[in-house]
Amino acid sequence: MQADHQARRHVVRAQQIGRDLRGDADVRRQPLVHARLNLERSLRMGDELGGHIVAGHVDGVGEVIGVCPEGDSTQIGIRVGRELAAAIAQKGSISLDGVSLTVNDVRDAEDGTHFSVNIIPHTAQQTTLGDLAQGRQLNVEIDVIARYLDRMIAARAQ
Question: Is 80 within a domain?
Answer without folding.
Answer: yes
